[in-house]
Design a protein that fits this description.
Length: 285
Amino acid sequence: MKRGIIASPAEVKLLMNGFNIASSISAAELRFYLLYWNKVFIPTNNLIHIGVPDEDLLISSGAIFRPRVALNGSFSGHEAGAAILNSQCEIAKFMSKDATTSWTFQQRGETQVLPQEFSNSRDILKIDLANILLSPSSDVEIYDVLEFKERHADQLATLHEMLDALYLEILSSADPDVKKIAVLSDLAKLINDHNKSIRKRFVSSQSFDLSAEINIKGNDALKGAFCLGALNSVIDLGMTSLAAAVIGGLASTISLSAKVGKTFKYQQPSTQLVYLSQARKEGIL
C-alpha cells in the first residue's frame, strides 16, 4: 500500500480578531516528507496561498501536490485563518476515500487544531518517538532525495509497516510497559540500518520526531489501563540499551500518555493512526 501525508504549509494560530502564522514548512521538513511518504499533499486555497521552499521544482517534478480548495464568500480576521485549516481538512476528508493509500494527517506545532465540523472527542493514546529518524538536510538536492528514496523503497515500506505494528501493538495491549513490546527489537535494527544508509549517502542529515495519536475505542482493558489514570504519566526509556539500539547512539525517548481530545473525524477505517502531530527538527548531525 502507498503511504501519503497531507501536511499543513504552516502553523496557524487563531486569535480573537484574526490569526498569525507561527511557523511555516522548512526545506528540511519537505525533504523528510519526500523521503518517508510516497505522496505529499500540501493543500492551499484561493484565499490565502502559503508558499513552500522549492515549490515550483517540487510541483513540476511531481514530488509534491498542492491541491487548491475553492472558497466562496467573504472572509476576514479569524475566518481567514480558519479557512486555511478547513482547506487541509477538506482535502483529508476527500483523500480518506482512497483505499490504495494509507494517509497521515499532519499539522505543525505542539497541539493540533481541528475545526468543529471535522473533529470528534475521543479517548486518545499519544506515542512520542523523539530523535528517531534521520533525513537529508536542507542543502541536499531534491533529486538526490528522490533517487535515494527509489533505491531504498523496500526498506522504507517495511519501516512504515513496523511503525504501524508498534502503534497497534501498544494499542491492543493492556500492558503499558514499552520494553515488553515484541516489535521493538526488529524495529530497532531496521531504523539503525536505515540511519546508517542516510549517513553514508548524505554528508549532512538531521533527526526528526514522530508523534502519533491513536483512538482508543472498544477496548475496556485498554481504557482501564490508560484512561483511568494508570498511564497519565510519561513512560521514559531514556538512554537505555534498547533506546540506544533504536537510535544508533542518539539520545532518544519513547513515551506514552493518555488523554481525552479531538481527533480527525474522517480517518480511514483501515487504520487507527489518526495523524502525525509533529515532524520537527530536533538537532543537526
